[in-house]
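Long-time lurker, first post. I've been practising inverse folding by hand and with some scripts of my own, and I keep getting stuck on stretches where the structure tokens seem ambiguous. Below is the full token string for one chain I'm working on. Before anyone asks, I'm not after the true native sequence, just a reasonable design that respects the backbone. If someone could post their per-position residues I'd love to compare against what I wrote down in my notebook.
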């Protein structure tokens, strides 16, 4: 039971650990939209989700006129790097990767009041981007775009075109969104589910099996009990017997007084009851209704379950003995029987002692 409770807890712990460690690897894509008027006097709008927000960047919108550094396109070096400042209309610095750290480039633009910094990748890297780390330049929008896109915008700006840029938040990307991780997670989920199902099936089968065994045992015990009850002394009450005259003699099971012809069963504790009353009682309760003596135990049912079951039919023969006015049905027990109480009944019966020869003869 304890194990069952631990399983989901363990799973939860694993998952939360996984989420926490992968949260550091999450990155947000940036939607980059540019618009400018070309030399045919047409407004050109270009839009792509091709930027990636830097690790220490604010993940939010930014817009402005694209501005290049004055000298070095990589935007390193001492101030002032740009010909704009914080009082100019909103502007976005476009710098090339290289020469100095991302933090240096971003801080140089930030100091002069840029709304955002766009870093484009080195020549020959096509459209590829990286997840920039710029721990010393925070509190500003900083994204990276591919070399092809960045160089194209830089060319336009160098030619004197005013390029308006809008940066917007795209979608989050993390390890769990990669196909590999998706496969891994689904396989892990499948394994955990399968293991849990197998565990529950095993538990259920086990329970069913033990329940079946218990039932079988119960049935066997009942049949043993029936056989054992058959060995109890039985007597038929005759007219004029003490039991028929006295009001104090009643069957404790049905609370009725005895009449002539009633068949009674005498238990090992010497209490007697109607045969029809006590037999179902004993099968159910196994004890004498009067003194609670465990009758079936006294008859050795629990201890001799196996030996009794292997014995061929009744090991007891009932003979009818006439003693005085009483008619006794006395079970003839096996002389080797280990039940002392049964032996006692046998020899205590003086009528039996006296008349046995005559009856047998
Ligand atoms: Zn009765
Ligand atoms: Zn009793």
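-- Answer (accepted) --
I ran through it position by position. Result:
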């Amino acid at each position: 039971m304890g194990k069952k409770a631990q399983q989901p807890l363990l799973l939860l712990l694993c998952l939360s650990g996984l989420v926490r460690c992968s949260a550091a690897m999450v990155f947000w894509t940036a939607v980059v939209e540019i618009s400018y008027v070309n030399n045919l006097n047409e407004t050109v709008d270009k839009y792509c989700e091709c930027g990636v927000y830097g690790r220490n960047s604010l993940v939010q919108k930014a817009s402005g006129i694209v501005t290049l550094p004055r000298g070095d396109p990589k935007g390193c070096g001492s101030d002032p790097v740009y010909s704009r400042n914080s009082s100019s209309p909103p502007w976005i610095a476009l710098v090339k990767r290289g020469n100095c750290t991302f933090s240096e480039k971003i801080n140089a633009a930030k100091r002069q009041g840029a709304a955002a910094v766009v870093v484009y990748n080195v020549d020959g890297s096509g459209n590829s981007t990286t997840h920039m780390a710029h721990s010393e330049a925070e509190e500003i929008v900083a994204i990276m775009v591919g070399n092809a896109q960045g160089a194209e915008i830089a060319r336009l700006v160098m030619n004197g075109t005013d390029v308006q840029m809008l940066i917007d938040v795209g979608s989050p990307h993390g390890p769990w969104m990669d196909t590999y991780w998706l496969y891994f997670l689904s396989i892990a989920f499948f394994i955990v589910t399968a293991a849990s199902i197998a565990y529950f099936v095993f538990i259920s089968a086990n329970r069913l099996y033990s329940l079946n065994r218990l039932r079988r045992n119960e049935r066997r015990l009942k049949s043993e009990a029936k056989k054992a009850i058959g060995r109890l002394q039985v007597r038929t009450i005759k007219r004029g017997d003490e039991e028929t005259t006295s009001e104090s003699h009643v069957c404790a099971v049905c609370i009725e007084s005895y009449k002539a012809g009633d068949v009674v069963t005498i238990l090992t504790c010497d209490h007697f009851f109607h045969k029809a009353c006590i037999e179902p009682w004993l099968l159910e309760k196994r004890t004498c209704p009067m003194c609670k003596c465990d009758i079936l135990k006294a008859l050795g049912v629990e201890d001799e379950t196996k030996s009794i079951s292997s014995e061929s039919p009744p090991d007891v023969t009932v003979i009818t003995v006439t003693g005085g006015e009483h008619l006794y049905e006395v079970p003839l027990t096996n002389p080797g029987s280990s039940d002392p109480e049964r032996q006692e009944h046998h020899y205590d019966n003086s009528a039996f002692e006296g008349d046995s020869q005559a009856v047998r003869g």
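A couple of notes from the structure itself: Residues 251, 253-254, 256, 273-274, 277 surround zinc ion (ligand 1) (CB under 6 Å). Residues 303-361 have pLDDT under 50 and may be disordered. Happy to go over any region you disagree with.
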